[in-house]
Structures are given as structure tokens and as C-alpha cells.
Write a structure and sequence with these properties.
Layout lengths: L8 E6 L7 H13 L4 E5 L2 H9 L3 E3 L3 H8 L3 E4 L4 H13 L3 E6 L10 E4 L12 E4 L21 E5 L4 H16 L4 E5 L13 E4 L6 H6 L2 E4 L3 H9 L3 E3 L7 H9 L4 E2 L7 H12 L2 H14 L4 H15 L3
Parallel strand pairs: 1-2, 1-4, 2-3, 4-5, 5-6, 6-7, 8-9, 8-11, 9-10, 11-12, 12-13
Helix pairs in contact: 1-11, 5-9, 7-10
Length: about 325
């Protein structure tokens, strides 16, 4: 009998300094849960391809017609929030006879798939046909995340907002934190495509890495964007301060805050002083940290990729679409 490991699965996703690498990371997470090596077609430049290769993925080039014809995948998984781009691949995937899966955030993307996966805490996608897996039980996080068990550093704060100008924002927050609390140490993660910013002796720069799981697990508090890293912090039970680095992340941060699973503000521009104040306050409030940790783990259990993979396997191996 054919198993998931025998399936040929092609992933399609965008990534880059502006878009971020959350879509690529989700594809890798779902591939791991399926037990297959991630084979990706990427919307992005050479740096994106190099990053995907460094993360252990295989990358193929070409348009949907040529790739689908030459690779003949059993399953096409599209994780692209731009509806027009997603629809082009989904349409060609259906013509090629693939099982077509569409992965969404906040309901964004093309819903014309055999299976729609939207692990958002907030608004969920609705499939026009096929099956929908909606809600945080299906958040696509790395299956290896739950294996990390690190002792907490009681005064260590991780700031992971990405590279480019976000690294400058992260450093401003870090400097404000260490000025306000002499006990605090800060570790800065600037993403895959960034250069180390200036820093003082209590601020440490973390270079590009395949995973922040250990850093998130050991931190007393994590300052993260409103994407995959916020879900990961909750799954680890690490008290998080959500910072919407782009407007589209505001609903996600607001939803986590409303459910008592994170601190943060989803309105207006990011306030460096407000974020730093929330971090310093959490360092001194063990009861609040415990509350955020408990609520975060209850909301995001880290097993969403396994649930989604099981649904993909049922459809792909069972032949019912």
C-alpha cells in the first residue's frame, strides 16, 4: 500500500525580505509532518532560494504548467496569500490531476482547492469546494518544536522581528529595555537576510539560524511579530509580546491579546517605549508570565501540522476528493 513517503508533493510559496519566510517555514513544517523532503517552487529571488536550500529544502524553477507536467506530483500545496498567484497554480494543479491544497492566513488566498488549511487564531478561510480545516488546532508549526526543552533564563528577552529595517526596530527596543532594567539581557534574532546591528554588552546578536526553537524555549519573554513566531512562542509556553511589523499582522496580535495568550498592541504604529515597558513589566511579574504561558499553550498545542498532514494523507491515499 502506498504511504505518505511514496507521495510526490510539490509546495509553492512566496518568501523574501519584505514578505518574510513564514510561508516557506510552514511548507517545511507540513512536509516534515508528512514525512517527505520539502520540494519547493518559490516566488522570490536568489537569496530566497539560497535560504530554502540552507533550511534543508529542494528547490525547483519554472512556471506551473512546465513544472506540473515534468514532475507529475500527486499533491500540490500552495501557500500564497495573493489570490491571483495562488489561483494560477491551483488551476494548473487541478488540470494536472493533482490533489490541491491551499494554505491560508486570515482567510487570504485562493479557496478553490480540494483542501483548505487556515490555522489562524482569527478569521478562517472557507473553501468553495472540498474540505476546510480552520482554527488554531491546525496552525502549521515545525513538528520538532515540541522536542525542545531548555531551562528558562530568568532575565533573558528574545527579540525576533526579522531582518532589514525590522532589525533596527528590534535594536531600539532592546536598548530601551536594558536602559530600564539593569537585570535584563537581550538576544536579537534578525532573520535570514540581515546584517548584525550595533549592540552593547547586554545585547547579543544571533546570526541566521535554521530554527529559533531553542532561543524561544530558553527566553523568559519573547518579542515577536504577528506571524509564525508568535504561534511558536505560545506553543513553547514562552510569554510573548506581539509586535505587528506590518499592518496585516494587527488582527493576529489583537486576537492573541484578547485571548490572554500574549501582550502587545495592534493599533497604530509600533511604540518602542510601550513594547519595552511591557517586557520589563513581565520580567517582574511571575504570575502574569505563568498566565500567558498557560493560555498560550492551551490555544496553540503545536500539533497542528500533524492534524493537517493526516487530512492530506487521507485525501491523497484514499482517493476521495
Amino acid at each position: 500500500m502506498k504511504s505518505c513517503a511514496d507521495l510526490r508533493i510539490l509546495f509553492r510559496a512566496p518568501a523574501g525580505a519584505r514578505r518574510g519566510f513564514g510561508h516557506l517555514a510552514r511548507c517545511r513544517s507540513l512536509a516534515r509532518a508528512l514525512g517527505v523532503r520539502p520540494l519547493l517552487s518559490l516566488r522570490g529571488g536568489a537569496v530566497v532560494e539560497e535560504t530554502a536550500l540552507a533550511l534543508g529544502c529542494d528547490v525547483v524553477r519554472g512556471g506551473p504548467v512546465r513544472l506540473l507536467r515534468s514532475l507529475a506530483p500527486d499533491v500540490l500545496i500552495v501557500d500564497d496569500p495573493v489570490t491571483a498567484n495562488a489561483r494560477r497554480w491551483i488551476t494548473e494543479g487541478r488540470r494536472a490531476g493533482c490533489l490541491v491544497v491551499s494554505v491560508h492566513d486570515l482567510g487570504l488566498g485562493c479557496p478553490d482547492a480540494d483542501l483548505v488549511i487556515d490555522g489562524s487564531v482569527t478569521m478562517n478561510a472557507r473553501a468553495r469546494r472540498g474540505t476546510t480545516l480552520a482554527g488554531p488546532r491546525f496552525a502549521l508549526l515545525d513538528p520538532m518544536l515540541l522536542d525542545e526543552r531548555e531551562p528558562r533564563d530568568p532575565f533573558s528577552i528574545l527579540i525576533a522581528l526579522g531582518g532589514g529595517p525590522r532589525a533596527d526596530l528590534a535594536l531600539d527596543i532592546a536598548e530601551t529595555i536594558v536602559d530600564a532594567d539593569p537585570r535584563a539581557t537581550v538576544r536579537l534574532a534578525g532573520g535570514f537576510v540581515s546584517t548584525p546591528p550595533r549592540a552593547d554588552e547586554r545585547i547579543t546578536w544571533i546570526g541566521p539560524t535554521r530554527s529559533l526553537h531553542k532561543e524561544i524555549a530558553r527566553a523568559c519573554v519573547a518579542v515577536v511579530g504577528g506571524g509564525v513566531s508568535l504561534y511558536e512562542a505560545c506553543a513553547h509556553g514562552t510569554p510573548a509580546v506581539g509586535v505587528p511589523v506590518v499592518a496585516a499582522q494587527r488582527p493576529t496580535v489583537a486576537a492573541f491579546v484578547a485571548r490572554g495568550a500574549a501582550k502587545g498592541s495592534a493599533f497604530g504604529s509600533v511604540s518602542v517605549s510601550e513594547v519595552a515597558e511591557q517586557c520589563v513589566s513581565l520580567l517582574s511579574d511571575a504570575a502574569m508570565r505563568r498566565r500567558l504561558s498557560r493560555n498560550g499553550r492551551q490555544l496553540i498545542d503545536g500539533r497542528g501540522a500533524f492534524r493537517a498532514a493526516a487530512a492530506v494523507a487521507r485525501l491523497a491515499l484514499g482517493g476521495t476528493r
